[in-house]
Amino acid sequence: MTAHRIMPRTRFLFVLAAGAAVVLAACGGAGESGTAGDARSGRLTIGVAFETLQTEFWVAAWNALQARAAERQITLLEAVSDGDPAKQLDQVRTFLTRRADGIILVPKDGKTVIPMIKAANAAGVPIVLLNRPADATDAAHTVVAPDNATITRDTVAYLIQQARRSNPRVKAAILVGDLSDVNAVGRRDGFEAAVADAGGSVDVVARIPTDWNQEKALAGLQTALQAHPDIGLIFSSSDFMFPSVKSVLSAAGRWKKAGEPGHVVLGGFDGDATAWRLMVDGYVDATGVQDVFFEVDAALRAILDATQGRIPPPRIADPGFVLTQANRASLEARTWGAIVAKQGQ
């Protein structure tokens, strides 16, 4: 799965309660007939099923879907499965019973989503997977997901450029995600591509497996820094591991802002609120941003195209962008983590 920072429990419960209220409003209450939510008014109805709302990224996507749907006068039937694929399959079947015109789905994984796609196919209802692709299947669907490899390659290329300003040969470390997750694989591959493009100027001294676990990230980076105290560049495959990076570098006296002596060039992937705050404070040099607004717009557009007789592509790649200290101000409005950070002030 894609890793993102866990929301504080109190905030999560508030968001979930607000989402539940929207669900009831969209569904028209318990007494509504089995027809689509706004069939009488001719409005399009889309079922939205998220595997979880316990991360900042998914809440940002959820809120963006609500806002974009409202702009287009689309009714949303909404559900959260709390990590239970069987529950999510039941939710998809409920959407189909209610005659949803399309389904947007955030699945738990690529395997358990396939029966959901097949159920939508059998009902003739277009289905879009948001951010997480399915395993190989002939069942028709569209996936909107980030181009992990390219975004990471471009991010790491920028980090290498920054690191080489103070040292022509850079010692680097990468915190690798769970390689059973296609997102982690893409990010690892993007890192390796950028290193290869650097033509021997980067010596990768540590490839640290984390399995998206903070404790493993912290322990692995401690070991790497003890063995190579002159590491000059660290890339984290997800921004949510920056607290572990900060802890290790602080203990070693290396938690320095860009431009300060001893600064370790830091970069990540996601564009979350933690990364944004650390960039504002001057500690993180760059992060590859998943463009949640692009992904939401593309998912809705794919459903609209399908309902109008146009066949959407099987995959729509989110090109994302590299957020740096140089372009941070100009890209603030497009960075979902900046919005989350400002809402939490």
> Which whole number gives the mean pLDDT?
89
Categorize the overall geometry: elongated
The neighbouring-strand order within the major sheet is 2-1-3-4-5-11
- The total count of helices amounts to 12
- Note the main sheet: 6 strands, parallel
Q: Please write the CATH class name of the largest domain.
A: Alpha Beta
- Unreliable residue runs: 1-40
**What's the architecture of the largest domain in CATH terms?**
3-Layer(aba) Sandwich
Class by alpha and beta content: alpha/beta
CATH fold node name of the largest domain: Rossmann fold
Order of helices and strands: HEHEHEHEEHEHEHEHEHEHEEHH
Task: Give the helix/strand layout.
Elements: H1 9-27, E1 45-50, H2 56-71, E2 75-80, H3 85-97, E3 102-106, H4 114-123, E4 127-130, E5 142-146, H5 148-163, E6 170-176, H6 182-197, E7 202-209, H7 214-227, E8 233-236, H8 242-251, E9 265-270, H9 273-281, E10 286-289, H10 292-307, E11 315-318, E12 321-324, H11 328-331, H12 336-343
Parallel strand pairs: 1-2, 1-3, 3-4, 4-5, 5-11, 6-7, 6-8, 8-9, 9-10
Antiparallel strand pairs: 10-12
